[in-house]
User: What shape does this take?
Amino acid sequence: MQTPYTSNLVIITGGPGVGKTTLIDHLHQRGYDTSPEVARAVIEEQIERGGNALPWEDNAAYAGLMARRSIRAWQTGMECHPRTVFCDRGLPDTLAHRRLSNLPEDKGLLNAITTYRYRRTAFVLPPWADIYKTDTARTQSFSEAVRTYVVLCRTYHECGYDLIEIRKGPVEQRAAQILSRLKL
Assistant: This one.
């Protein structure tokens, strides 16, 4: 049985390099509670420590860390209840990553996705070539970023979420689109 959706945890998702973190930071500056992206944090920590739980080394270990950190972020966000918390990605992103990487199905992750529910309406940012850049943590090509977007959308729908695509534009306009939809 699926746990009911929470109304305060709002996911902002999308492929790499689409402006999610910029948008989350903007919402935080406007006074909203936010939850940072766990995937990038895991990569940065593993590089700093010389660890191998990285998508290009031990991808299964990396995905496991992503799932555990996403659960912890969900639990931390629930502590803010009933305040709205904007989450830079959610547990379905980990499932999408596993699918993109051809990793075996993880029943624990599927159970977590059923247990730890976010607001039913999630927001997705589309691929945007004009702002896309690679760095030490974001190594995918733009075509891989587009493929990631497609798999993310399919995965979120399969997990029972309604996605609203946020149009490309200045961060203030993107934030206004989200806040308007949420009536905040």
In short: The mean pLDDT is 91. The longest strand covers residues 9-14.
